[in-house]
Amino acid sequence: MKLKIWAVVLVIVIGIISFWVLRNVVFCEECGQQVTEMPQDATNAVYDIKFELNEAGEFQVAASVDVTNDSSDSWSEIRFYLVPNAMNSVETPLYEDEELEIEVSAVSVDGQEAAYNLDNNELMVELDAGLETASEAKVAIEYSMVLPQNGMRLSQVDDNYYLAHWYPMLGHYQDGWDINDYDPIGESYDTDYGDFTVTFDLPKDYLVASSAEDGPIEATSTGTVSGENIKDFYMAIMNPDEWEFETVQANNTDLRVFTPRSANMLEETSELAVDAYVYFEENIGDNPFGELDIIGNDGYMEYPNIIEVAADAASQESVLVHEIAHQWFYFIVTNDSYNEAWLDEGVTEFSSSLFLSDYYDNEEYGFWGALTAEEYYPPETYVNLPLDQFEDESYYSTIYGKVPMLLKEHFDLLDEDEAALEFLSAYYKEFQFKQVNTEEFKVFFEDYFEGDQSEFLNSWLE
Ligand SMILES: [Zn+2]
Questions:
Q1: For residue range 103-138, what is the model confidence (pLDDT) as tens digits?
Q2: What is the pLDDT of residues 166-216, one digit of tens each?
Q3: For the chain, does the N or the C end have fewer beta carbons within 10 angstroms?
Q4: Which CATH number fits domain 245-458: 1.20.1250.20, 1.10.390.10, 2.40.37.10, 1.10.287.600?
Q5: Identical topology for domains 45-192 and 245-458
Q6: Transmembrane ranges (predicted)?
Q7: The whole model's pTM is what?
Q8: Could you tell me the distance, in angstroms and rounded to a whole number, from the CA of residue 316 to the centre of ligand 1?
Q9: Would you say domain 45-192 falls under CATH 2.60.40?
Q10: Ligand 1 center to residue 342 CA distance, Å?
């Protein structure tokens, strides 16, 4: 009898120890790979957004954001990006599209009306009492907006609505608020991870695809979607008559693919998407999200868990692979894309060139896009410049051309198979769900290659 009790105790103790040892290392049984775990409590912004679209194409938005002060400073204000306010030619000189109309009707903090200032794409909300470290404030913002027809990113195209950077996005606080003016050349907003619940009410049934896990594809006029650890929340609202769609499986993620009926490219888009997604998971690392939406609307843009790709078969390949790679570099490893676009765009273009090289077993073909970009215009010496210090042409040739080409050269010299992918995999593992900057990249690079790499790094990183 006594022995039996001891045996039971031993089994329980072993169980507890195994649980603690194994809880941080989870393996996917099908693929035999380490699985990326979603971080817990990693965000300081919890968004609850409700919006209504009426038949005239006007959005009424009520956004409530629970903001936690995750810094060691006391805050006297909270700053958000409200990009729609800069989507006109008065605020943004380069802006050429039809202008977006926005009207803010109410701003409150913890239920009390609050003073605020709206300047370019920055919304500054004053706090009557200071917000101390680890304290929370509920900021509520109500506004209406009409999207520009065929605008850039945040746009209405016929009876389709593309909601990019459409809500008050909490700025990233690091030794102060650092919100730059909207710059359409790249992504000028630097946001951190947040948790989202978005409730929508539409005038009729639409196809809805968002940064959340939306589930089976069916047209609907109302719904609530939610997701955690999302860097910025995008949503497409599409007229069901214009799209064909299907859901395909890439490892344990659903890819929901939407292409225009007129383009007749659903099958090839889905096939290439699965191949690229599986390649990045197997060579760089597990993507912990369950759904990626792919919209062939000629947007050429990445958002968390959803991408806008080409609407024609000729441009589709390079754009599709590039935007899928952004899920690893931009979203899961994130950075300030205003000041250091090379970290998201350059590393992404390098990754997609590696995929295309392997896919066709042809390196020249795989890096053709990067080489063409580099030769298109003389690149800058240093690649880690803020957006406003590039010319349009040198931004493109430096970030999409020079960065992938010099990384290729470095790994080619090592003359080891898979050296580049192994490096990207280690880098992904180190920085997932974190903000990385040039300095941290340099330190990681030197540690990884165990020695002084300053001659190489200092020749292109300022
Ligand atoms: Zn990109």
A1: 999 999 999 999 999 999 999 999 999 999 999 999
A2: 999 999 998 999 899 998 887 888 899 999 999 999 999 999 999 999 999
A3: N
A4: 1.10.390.10
A5: no
A6: 5-22
A7: 0.91
A8: 14
A9: yes
A10: 10
